[in-house]
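The data layer described in this paper is built around a simple, fixed record for each protein. Such a record has a labelled line for the sequence and another for the backbone structure tokens. For reference, a complete record is included directly beneath this paragraph.
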Amino acid sequence: MCALGLAYHWQRLLDEQRAASVAEIAEVEGMDVTQVRRVMRLTLLAPDVVDGWRARLTLCWRR
């Protein structure tokens, strides 16, 4: 879930033009551009997939 949160945060930075590029995000985060792009692909998951993932995690935490 942390990666999913990061992906949406980075996408928001790009959408709001607070970051100029994925390369800039990677530099600030101290990561490789390829890794940032891989994480950002999580924003392309269908909402029902994300909801299902969240529901399963919630069930695990309640045990």
User: Anything to note?
Assistant: The mean pLDDT is 89. Residues 47-62 form the longest helix (16 residues). Helices lie at 2-15, 22-29, 33-40, 47-62.
